[in-house]
Specification:
With 244 residues, the chain is an alpha+beta fold. The protein has 2 domains: 34 residues; 205 residues, Hypothetical protein, similar to alpha- acetolactate decarboxylase, domain 2 (60s Ribosomal Protein L30, Chain: A, 2-Layer Sandwich). It contains 5 helices and 14 strands. A 7-stranded mixed sheet has the order 6-5-4-3-8-1-14, with no helix packed on it. Strands 9, 10, 11, 12 and 13 form a 5-stranded antiparallel sheet that branches. A two-stranded antiparallel ribbon has the order 2-7. The longest helix is centred in the N-terminal third of the chain and has 32 residues. The termini are far apart.
Length: 244
Amino acid sequence: MNKKIIIVVAVVLAGLFVLSSLSSILQYNQNVAGDRDVLYQLATFNTFSNGGYAGFMSYSELEKHGDFGIGTFDGLDGEMLAVNGIYYQIPWDGKPRVATGNMEAPYATVTFFDVDQSFAVGGVNYTQLKAEIDSALPSKDAIYAIKVTGTFDFAQTRSPAKQNQPYQPLSVALQNQAVFNLTDVSATAVGFWFPASMDGVDYVGYHLHLITDDASAGGHLLDCIIRNATVEIDQTTRYSLVLP
């Protein structure tokens, strides 16, 4: 075969290889980008609430699947809240601290938060806040990540004490919890709304955790009175569940 022909063939084959590689890279990047719209969950809520408190995924791994979410730690050691890519532990003393990568989660729901809609609220209690969000949800068959940022005249939060084995159901474990009454705080509440069709897979309705802007207090949100705030909503229609 003529040397020129061999060189041309080699160049063409090399070009095809490069194009194929670029196509694979682009497809991979598209898949990664698409994963921003997936809610990633560790354990079903029923499994967790029946005493499934043993951590089985490190936070260094969990944070690869979202920059926003809620959950807990091995042994039910406080509440977890993730916002803007930072994962916090809010232990029984109510003082948040940044979670370390070697900590483990027995239960968590996380996603990459991208705002689909937002609106302002003011002068509302927790019940009224949920009613306003209800009216804004475009469908009752999707999952929604919810972020509420603003000034709270009052926020009541809680955090459970770390449990010892054998683990008791959540209803028993929460009999030993710390409750905090916060007043006049700038804070962010983050969490999710799950449809009734997913009852048992996760907690139906609203499940929010709160942290103050100065990261000095927080926990699972029990009640609140909002002076003024912005509600941001991210609709999620894809779901990934990892079992223990």
